[in-house]
Fold:
Amino acid sequence: MGIGDDAAIINLPLNSKAQLVVASDTLVEEVHFPGDASAYQVAQRALCVNLSDMAAMGAAPRWFTLALTLPQGKANEQWLKGFSDGLSEIAIAYNCALIGGDTTAGPLAITITMLGEVPLGEGLVRSGAANGDRVYVTGILGDGAAGLLAARKDKSLNCIDNTVSERLLLSFYKPHPKINIGLKIRALASACIDISDGLVADLGHICKSSGVDASVHTSRLPIHPDLEANFQGQCVDWALFGGDDYQLCFTVPAEHYPMVDDWILLGELDATWIGSIIPCSDNSPAVLVDGVKSQERERGFDHFDQ
Amino acid sequence: MGIGDDAAIINLPLNSKAQLVVASDTLVEEVHFPGDASAYQVAQRALCVNLSDMAAMGAAPRWFTLALTLPQGKANEQWLKGFSDGLSEIAIAYNCALIGGDTTAGPLAITITMLGEVPLGEGLVRSGAANGDRVYVTGILGDGAAGLLAARKDKSLNCIDNTVSERLLLSFYKPHPKINIGLKIRALASACIDISDGLVADLGHICKSSGVDASVHTSRLPIHPDLEANFQGQCVDWALFGGDDYQLCFTVPAEHYPMVDDWILLGELDATWIGSIIPCSDNSPAVLVDGVKSQERERGFDHFDQ
Structure:
């Protein structure tokens, strides 16, 4: 399986019972992170973002290559040690190994290609959602957008106290890839995606791939109390359209609701039921927010618009 | 097998009889190609350079991901069509498929991660050269360095006629990856590398990995008559230290000389015997050029030195 999902799935040669999962993501300075980010922070974010693609596929991460483009001013031991520390901390935590890559001179950019594996046919894709499935998201939404503002030292965040801004900064530079959740749900979810471009945009990708609409309810969106307290006017928009959350959005057919709800109730799965898959009403599969389909708002984050 | 060779070799899970080969290479504008290169040229070079790593491993290329970072001015249909045409022409010629990637805004850079396969244990590595092995190179050397000058429209090339400069430009933008040679020699070569940083630097990598010296003779170096005619003073240096040739340098144990020499004689293998592997004389494995070991000259091309 090639282009069009979070990663590619490859049938291994010679009748192996596993499939390889491959994804590449690039982070460019001033586009994906501010110029004053530390090497340690940049490395962690680069690896976590790529691991999130594995989570979205239900894959176990195994190996990665690193293509590091570095300006002269950063090609020094101190910068490289910070980068290496950040990278190896995450690689150890998620049990994946750096297996190669390239180092070149140029404007700071990091491309990681992550390889993982899934049992044959068990990879989670975007195209399996069907009418009647429930839509769930993991964790909380909106922290990614607020975290980006924190990373940019945006004035709108001056009102919050240090504990909150530290949590937001950490969510930006070290988003927690939901690998274990991907592995847990892969046998029963019908579709899955990671929320990197915003819930509406990414759930919209599931809708398009599956030929269905999705109806979500803003009242159900899981948002951190800190955001609700400090950013009442914006936090729902951040949760819907903000991007950078790196949570999973997945759909579950009726036969598996009880299992998923049991897991949630027992604290074994950190996820929230936010809506349902419905038939597509107008040949243009998309997300309805509180009953309203808004083609315009669902584009999500587009770096070329910056 | 991880870092330290042209690519990583991965044992496939569940007792598969093939191994996956993975390599990443980045090309940055103004570092690896001039700013006036066409999208078509850049795409071809990016893919060929990565394919050359597969050739060096004796691997059959299968799949690749593309991480394309593009400035606003190039994010248009015309540029992308040129890029896509160049990429697909090479992908078809070498039977490998684009399976995913990422597109981001930023200074022009291309990272390709190439995946290939080799039968279990048959991958060519740098560490197998032994005393008495012969050293061979494929094709001709020095065209890469001259091609870089041609791409930069360097004045020193004003003396040559158009046919020659066109050939050099083509060798720069569309280096011919020696995939078939890699496949042909993988059963009998003891070590192999592609010459991207210059013969002495890359053969030096084989020496270091294998704990041996290599002795090469400049009189044996295969250099195109055009270069010998026009650049008598420089062409040997280009062949030794110039880089960008993307030929293979490989070593062959005594038991396999006859086969290799037969292939060369019959025109089935475009390669030249340029020297031999000898015991390391001083605990610092390196290349001797016409009997002289020159640690200083063997660094090869270092982009950070530019």
About this structure: DSSP finds nine helices and twelve strands in chain B. Chain B touches chain A through 51 residues (CB under 8 Å). The mean pLDDT of chain B is 89. Chain B has two domains: 8-119, 134-301.
